[in-house]
Specification:
Chain B: One of its GO terms (cellular component) is GPI-anchor transamidase complex. The structure holds two protein chains of two kinds. Chain A is α/β, with parallel strands linked by helices. Chain A is built from 21 helices and eleven strands. Chain A is 56% helix and 13% strand. Chain A has an eight-stranded mixed β-sheet with strand order 2-3-5-4-6-9-7-8, with helices on both faces. Chain B is an all-alpha fold. Chain B has a domain of 246 residues. In chain B, helix 5 runs antiparallel to helix 6 and helix 8 runs parallel beside helix 10. Chain B is globular, with a radius of gyration of 21 Å. The chains are: A alpha/beta, B mainly alpha.
Chain lengths: 609, 417
């Protein structure tokens, strides 16, 4: 009929479709679960030979430590809440004293009614051996992501600036950047560096060449540390080249003997469960698409960036960190071209274990195609519910207008919550969310009622609505899987019951009620509450972060949630409750199937005779 | 024209005005999309040419501008306000839709003087055909991007509408205009001659097809010479524009990616083979014309439709606007849709390609994590979907013709041996 005309006309194959669809879901999820095993993941390796990690002797020690401590006292004296003018003046003086070109940038963002403003100060070390076409950036936020004074981080950047200035071996410019916070500041700076700054962000007075890589230092204590926690997720789930991460891990481990961790898995024993947890935590971060550190803002500009964060209490001090950064910058200095050798799409299972895209992508694609299979099944089924009799060799005609318009309108409806949650002020976000959640509980029922009373759709049209909705869901998720695998996978997992809910209408009123209730559990709004629980934060704060991400970081996770996922959910709800007012025609359908099968058997017998 | 057609046209105009005014950044975004704007239709390049032209320089200096000189004269004559420009593009779309509605009203797709389909009652009403063109997202995007392909499409549809009405001269002139603007519509000439011959109003005054075709071809050549002469005088007495416009269509010097199959192929090609494969690729499009005209002699409009569909895949700089034109013409053949076998498959593939194309282009150009193969793979999928639609439509129309001849075979399975 539609796809493989003869094969699908056979009722048996047609009946296999739901089973096949279920199989795809199971295999898709199981696929992800086997990834942490040794056979399906690989050890990381340095792909770009020019990096030569850890092959240089580092000289940052002794007297530099005294300089560092002096800078730290300066930073502490200013304190966490120093005005950005004071910070900029003092840090700018220090940079100038070191003989570097200094620039200051002012920025201001407004998201959900709150102002985020501050000043960035930075210095450019012109490469003695370079031609100012390439640069590397060392960043420290005055306050880190947790709003704590980054005292040793800022001091170490200042000490390294003084130290790097004396070397003649740099072939790329080094930029030292101190941002006044860790969320808006880096974004304002990198936007202005590429002349993409919004209205309230001032342009940069001094610039250098194309940024090759960025390392951010988050060192908010004065005490010694035990291990380094590496952050690597970018905005919208984009990742830096794996070589940069590997270089940092390799230098820390082999040269400095510092343990490295990731995704807040501080006690990683390299067992199955640790690996799985690391991978899932990474997927949640990438799926949400938010900035996990100051480095995240750089990644959308095709700049590879990581944040090094100290953790624990141990015997490593600022000298170890300084030497690590020296060695890392020497490696980056060696790069002949932009990072390109290693992977851009990967899931990290531990500091030295990863899965590449070829291995993990099929799981999301299988999940996405399970929706497409359901859609194909409904398409074939809709061909059997037409009222007109179609002769063989002809495709039955379908009334596509109402289903198409209805589904598209549902998707456009998603613009309302998108607008609502990105513009509401932070004080009323929680109440808006509560009201919206209550409203969406009833929305599918209301839409379904209106649809049935106003438009009187036939069973044929209802089947087509389900078909188009699931087709679009599969379509969007498959396309999304190439851009942000994690988001696509997570949405697909929540959407697994939707095809079943679509089918519920034909199974009586109780089934409808059951599915309407079950759908509430897998609603986007519930997922948001789940995320809030997972982080132990209030929903209002999460929404505020999302609105901030929308305005400042240009996150598009919200678009996917409200214009793809939410409409698919509403549509599933509408279809599930159509069993309450729609006539139950599904049973007749089954009769038709049985009859067809009988006819087929008869024909076969006749042929045999 | 009925009330519904007017509603459709008004809706489409309002939708375009709404998009132009509410999202002022949208037209420029669409203009820079490679799927919509090609080197030979891009509005950005047109502005570059206009700038040079208005400053007394040759617009073809610098090798950026590759569009016909008359467009320059036209846009110079227009007041340089974006509202006026937008209105011109909207009007061009409306004119295209009016032509389509006229074509649909004559019912020529289902019954020509030589053939009347047994399914002609199942044709789409004219307003729906108009809607299929005007409300198609591809058409809307092309209009918003202010691609000059809009004018080519208008000229083609006007030519068909005139030919269907049996008006030979205006039809030929409109086709000459579209061929002048973007070369490839010239392939429709034989079919258009057949169409106007069939639809000629006064059968009593009929001349033989040979004489008719010769006259029409002469008219076409005359019109083209006139247009080229006009262009010659506009560009200050230089034939430079010939190479910069038609030469670009034929020789493919600009390898900017697009939805077609050429750019990647010719990037990869060794220079010594380039000329040979240019000939092969161009001739490939040409060979369909004769065969289709002979096989579908009874339905010349379908020949034009199919050739435009083939052009949307195989011409040197195709864009989604070409596909939009083909799909809207195909909607005239709604009555044979039941005979098409792969509609769901082809439509889903087109949808997949239209989502994955921009995604992979983003990965290649902006994120830097993909490469050119990603995008090229999707253009292959896009062309696969179009191929399936074109081939399936050919099958359906052939089957319909056959069933009309032999009504007893309706609904029976057939097999080619």
């Amino acid at each position: 009929m539609a796809i493989i005309p003869l094969a699908l006309r056979s009722a048996k194959l047609f009946r296999l479709l739901p089973a096949l669809s279920a199989l795809f879901v199971l295999v898709g999820i199981a696929w992800l679960l086997v990834l942490p095993l040794d056979d399906y993941s690989r050890r990381t390796y340095i792909s770009e030979n020019a990096l030569l990690p850890g092959s240089v002797h580092t000289y940052f020690a002794g007297s530099e430590q005294n300089v560092f401590q002096a800078y730290r006292e300066e930073v502490k004296a200013l304190g966490r809440d120093a005005s950005s003018d004071d910070i900029v003046a003092r840090i700018g003086d220090i940079f100038k004293g070191q003989g570097l070109k200094v620039g200051v940038q002012k920025y201001k963002y407004t998201a959900s009614g709150k102002d985020y403003e501050g000043k960035n100060v930075y210095a450019v070390l012109e490469a003695p051996r370079g031609d100012a076409t390439e640069s590397m950036v060392l960043v420290a936020g005055w306050r880190n992501m947790d709003d704590v004074l980054n005292e040793s981080g800022v001091a170490l950047v200042l000490a390294l600036a003084r130290y790097f200035k004396r070397w003649s071996l740099w072939s790329k410019d080094v930029i030292f950047l101190i941002t006044s916070d860790s969320r808006a500041g880096p974004q304002a700076w990198v936007d202005a560096y590429h002349d993409m700054q919004p209205q309230n962000v001032s342009p940069l007075p001094v610039k250098s060449g194309a940024i090759q890589s960025v390392v951010v230092l988050d060192y908010p204590t004065s005490s010694s540390f035990d291990s380094i926690h590496i952050l690597y997720d970018g905005i919208n789930g984009q990742l830096p080249n794996l070589d940069l991460f590997n270089t940092a891990v390799s230098i820390a481990g082999k040269q400095m003997d510092i343990h490295t961790t990731l995704q807040e898995m501080y006690s990683h024993n390299d067992g199955y469960s640790s690996r799985l947890h690391t991978m899932l935590r990474g997927m949640v971060n990438q799926g949400l698409g938010h900035a996990t550190g100051p480095h995240s803002s750089f990644i959308p500009y095709h700049i590879d960036a990581i944040t090094l964060q100290v953790s624990g209490h141990g015997y490593h001090d600022e000298v170890s960190m300084g030497r690590l950064l020296e060695s890392l910058f020497r490696s980056l200095n060696n790069l002949l071209e932009h990072f390109h050798q290693s992977f851009f799409f990967y899931l990290l299972l531990g500091a030295r274990r990863f899965v590449s895209i070829g291995t993990y992508l099929p799981s999301a694609m299988l999940l996405a195609s399970s929706f497409t299979l359901s859609a194909i099944r409904l398409w074939v089924q809709s061909g059997r519910t037409t009222t007109t009799i179609t002769p063989a060799c002809e495709t039955p005609q379908r009334a596509l207008l109402l289903p198409t318009v209805f589904t598209l309108l549902l998707h456009l409806l998603g613009a309302i919550p998108l607008y609502l949650f990105n513009t509401t002020t932070s004080t009323s976000l929680t109440t808006t969310f509560t009201n919206f959640t209550l409203l969406t509980l009833l929305l599918p029922i209301a839409i379904s009622y209106l649809l049935h009373t106003l438009l009187h759709p036939t069973q044929h049209q209802l089947t087509l609505i389900s078909c188009i909705s699931l087709l679009l869901l599969g379509l969007f998720l498959a396309a999304l899987a190439t851009l942000n695998f994690s988001l696509s996978f997570l949405i697909a997992v929540f959407a697994v019951p939707y095809p079943l809910a679509h089918a519920a209408a034909g199974r009586g009123k109780c089934a409808s009620a059951f599915w309407v209730l079950l759908l509430q559990v897998v609603a986007p709004t519930m997922a948001l509450v789940g995320v809030a629980k997972y982080w132990g934060e209030e929903v209002g704060l999460i929404l505020e972060e999302a609105a901030f991400g929308w305005v400042v970081w240009r996150m598009w996770t919200q678009v996917v949630v409200w214009c793809v996922w939410w409409p698919a959910w509403v549509c599933a709800g509408v279809m599930a409750c159509s069993g309450w007012w729609g006539k139950v025609v599904e049973k007749k359908m089954e009769e038709v199937e049985v009859r067809e099968e009988k006819e087929e058997k008869k024909e076969r017998k006749e042929k045999e005779l | 024209m009925d009330r519904r057609s007017i509603i459709v046209i008004l809706t489409a105009v309002l939708l375009r005005l709404f998009l132009f005014t509410i999202f002022p950044a949208l037209p420029d975004l669409l203009t820079s999309r490679v799927e919509i704007s090609t080197p030979v239709t891009s509005y950005k390049r047109l502005k570059e040419g206009l700038y040079l032209y208005e400053h007394g320089l040759s617009p073809y200096n610098g090798g950026v501008f590759h569009q016909a000189p008359l467009l320059l004269a036209f846009f110079t004559a227009l007041p340089s306000s974006s509202i006026i420009t937008n209105l011109v593009y909207i009007l061009a779309d409306v004119q295209s839709a009016l032509s389509l509605i006229q074509i649909a009203n004559t019912g020529v797709s289902a019954s020509t003087p030589l053939h009347t389909s047994s399914r002609k009652d199942n044709s789409l009403p004219a307003w729906a055909v108009g809607a299929a063109f005007l409300l198609n997202p591809f058409t809307v995007a092309t209009c918003l991007s202010r691609s000059t392909l809009v004018f080519t499409n208008t000229a083609i549809l006007t030519a068909i509408a005139r030919a269907v009405n049996g008006e030979l001269l205006p039809g030929i002139l409109a086709l000459a205009m579209s061929a002048y603007l973007s070369l490839y519509p010239a392939l429709c000439l034989p079919a258009l001659i057949l169409l106007s011959y069939d639809m000629h109003k006064r059968p009593a005054l009929r001349v033989s097809l040979g004489v008719f075709a010769t006259t029409s071809t002469m008219l076409f050549i005359g019109a083209i010479i006139g247009l080229l002469g006009l262009s010659y005088s506009i560009t200050g007495g230089s034939w430079e524009f010939l190479y910069s416009t038609y030469g670009v269509h034929l020789m493919l010097p600009d390898l900017t990616p697009n939805v077609g199959l050429w750019w990647y192929f010719f990037i990869e090609m060794f220079d010594s083979f380039r000329d040979f494969f240019l000939c092969v690729f161009q001739l490939h499009l040409l060979i369909y014309v004769g065969g289709l005209c002979i096989r579908f002699r009874k339905q010349p409009l379908f020949v034009i439709t199919s050739i435009l569909g083939l052009c949307a895949m195989f011409k040197s700089y195709p864009s989604i606007g070409d596909t939009a034109l083909y799909i809207s013409l195909l909607s005239l053949y709604h009555h044979v849709f039941p005979l098409m076998r792969y509609t769901f498959f082809a439509t889903s593939t087109l949808l997949y390609a239209s989502l994955l194309g921009p995604a992979f282009y983003h990965l290649w150009i902006y994120a830097g994590s993909g490469n050119a193969n990603f995008f090229y793979a999707i253009t292959l999928v896009w062309c696969l979907a179009l191929t399936v639609i074109v081939a399936d439509a050919l099958y359906a129309v052939l089957r319909d013709e056959w069933e009309t001849e032999r009504p007893e075979m309706r609904g029976k399975d057939v097999m080619q041996i």
